[in-house]
Design a protein that fits this description.
single chain, alpha/beta, Rossmann fold, seven-stranded mixed sheet, 10 helices, 15% strand, globular
């Protein structure tokens, strides 16, 4: 049984949709998506290690988290049917890794705004970068700084207390581990033979390296569907909520 905290919404007999949040936020970021999906799907929303209600779960390697998520999918399976997995940012890296490693558990993958190629900080070694993250970690719990970060992620006022609580739950060690794992991600070779369906979404105003990586994910998986949304930034589920929800529902219905 996974140690992650998670919630479920919807009928226990409905197809499973697993929503994986990004780094520095929590399951709460999917509030509007859960509302949109709950009538047709069984929606599972975990908090990743070190985050919010899973703050007591140490942030290990990305591989360990993928194993936890695979365990969660096995735990919630009622009829043996594989799930749809939707991930945002760091959660989308986990989605790719989970689909590539466990195609028996994942029928469809929705990958939203993930970094799939290195985005180095000029002049900084990995060790120095980690040191800067560790030194800056206490800022995350400061309300004024959290306001700036929340605005950059399109977290609205109704979710700000959730964001601040989550920021304060992240230890410096977990924050360093997460940013290191995020920067180290590489597209798994087995992604190219993932037998399920994949929808890849990103904002046109996101960093060029991120958009290039999303195109690479698309090129490596024949039959995947890619959409770059003009003018959108890093936060499609929160910035373009109605559009995102309808796009997701329409794609799931086609499947």
């Amino acid at each position: 049984m996974t140690a992650l905290w998670w919630t479920e919404t919807g009928s226990s007999d409905a197809p499973v949709v697993l929503l994986i949040h990004g780094g520095g936020v929590g399951a709460w970021m999917w509030r509007d998506q859960v509302e949109a999906l709950r009538d047709r799907y069984r929606v599972i929303t975990p908090d990743l290690p070190g985050h919010d209600h899973s703050a007591g779960v140490p942030f290990g390697s990305a591989g360990e988290i993928v194993a936890d998520l695979a365990g969660l999918l096995k735990e919630v399976a009622r009829n043996g049917n594989p799930a749809t997995v939707v991930g945002f940012s760091f959660g989308a890296q986990l989605t790719v890794a989970l689909a590539a490693a466990h195609p028996d558990l994942v029928a469809r993958a929705v990958v939203v705004s993930t970094l799939a190629e290195p985005m180095p900080m000029p002049g900084l070694s990995a060790g120095l970068s980690a040191g800067l993250v560790r030194a800056a970690a206490p800022l995350g719990g400061q309300r004024w700084f959290a306001r700036l970060q929340a605005k950059a992620l399109y977290v609205d006022d109704d979710m700000f207390d959730d964001y601040l609580r989550t920021a304060r739950s992240l230890s410096a060690a977990d924050l360093v581990a997460m940013t290191t794992a995020n920067a180290a991600f590489r597209i798994p070779e087995t992604w190219a033979v993932f037998p399920g369906q994949a929808l890849l979404l990103a904002g046109g105003a996101e960093p060029r390296a991120l958009v290039r990586g999303m195109r690479d994910l698309h090129d490596r998986l024949p039959g995947s569907e890619l959409e770059i949304v003009p003018g959108a930034g890093h936060g499609l589920p929160l910035q373009r909520t109605q559009w995102f929800n309808q796009r997701l529902l329409d794609w799931l219905a086609r499947g």
